[in-house]
Amino acid sequence: MQRLKPVDVVIAGGGWVGLAMAKEIATRTSLSVLVLERGPARRLKDYAAGMDEVDYALRFKMMQNLAEETTTHRHSIGQTAAPIRQYGSFNPGTGVGGAGEHWGGLAYRYLPDQFRLATMLREKHGTRLPADLLVQDWGVTYDELEPYYWQAEQMMGIGGKAGNLRGQIVEGGNPFEGPRSHEFPNPPHKPTWLVSRFNQAARELGYHPFPTPAATLSQTYRNPDGVTRSGCAYCGYCLRYGCMIGAKAQPTNTLLPVLTGRKNFTLRTGCNVRRIAHREGTATGVTYIGESGVEIEQPAHVVILGSWTLNNCRLLLLSKIGEPYDPATGKGTLGRNLTHQVGTATPIFFERPLNAFMGAGALGATLADFDGDRNLDPSMGILRGGQIRVTSGGEAPIGSFGRIPPGETEASWGSAWKKAALKWWDHASSITSEAEHLAYRQNYIDLDPTYTDKFGDPLARLTLDWTDHERRQAEMTIQVQAKVGKAMGARIGNPARRVAGRYSTVEYQSSHVSGGVVAGTSPENSVLNPWMQHWSIPNLWVVGASGFPQNSSGNPTMTILAMAYRSADVMIKRYFKRPGSMA
Amino acid sequence: MRRREFLVIPARSLGGVLLYTLAREPIRLYAQESPQKGTLRVPLRFFTADEAKIVTAACERIFPADDSGPGATEAGVVIYIDRQLAGPYGRDQYRYTKGPWVQSVAEHGNQDKATPREIYREGIGSLGGFTELPAGEQDGKLHAIEKTAFFQLLRRHTIEGMFSDPLHGGNAEMIGWQLIGYPGPRMSYREEIGQDSGEAWRRKPVSLAESLGHAVSGMEEEQ
Question: How crowded is residue A159: how many other Cβ atoms within 10 Å of its Cβ?
Answer without folding.
Answer: 29
